[in-house]
TrEMBL record:
Entry's Gene Ontology BP terms: proteolysis
The keyword Ubl conjugation is assigned to this record: no
InterPro entries assigned to the protein according to its UniProt record, in alphabetical order: ABC2_memb-like (IPR025699)
Transmembrane parts of this sequence: 12-33, 85-107, 119-140, 152-175, 181-206
GO molecular function, one term: peptidase activity
Protein's name according to its UniProt entry: Zn-dependent protease with chaperone function
Keywords for the protein's UniProt record, in alphabetical order: Hydrolase, Membrane, Protease, Transmembrane, Transmembrane helix
Tagged with keyword Signal: no
Amino acid sequence: MRGLLLNNLYSMSGNIKLSFCMALILVFVPIFISDSSFLSMIMSMQLFIFISNTGASLQIDESSKWNKFELTLPVKRRTIINAKYVSFIILIALGILISTLTAIVFIVFKGSVDIKDLILGYCFGLTLSISTPAFMYPFILKMGAEKSDLIIVLSGCLSVVLMYSISILLSLFVTGISFRSPIVCITSVIVSVLLFILSYFLAVWIHRNKEYD
């Protein structure tokens, strides 16, 4: 799997560098703002930005016929999917690293931060970055990478709808619940992780039954 993982990262290297540069620029934005609610928005963007560029690398794999060539390698189809999902986890980890740096910069220059805004930034960003590939990758496996840009946009929208839906459902049982409530944020991340796990098994099933011309 190591070779497959390295290939995935290599094919995404250009997009990773671009995402890293964009996210790094955002690190210094908190120096010029005093409202920590803007911090949560910036952190969410940084967490999501790495995942949002994966569509281009999937298109490269398809156009170069790599997705067909890798089937000839002495590895199981499950191993191919394993490498993809580990790649997603690495991108999410990069987003966490950069967003944490942003929070540190904000605290250093502003002295303190509203913990609710910090939780919202992490959780909304994690919900987006975890659930988006969970929705996206099985669809791309089934429909092809040509429509990856549209699929990523739709997956991102579904992730936002997911969080709002959780907020509405929780408000039926707990008073005073809003979209920004910590319990909504944390629940959304937990649901996203479960979707990510289910997505993995669905992707394995689709890949095993997929026929390439």
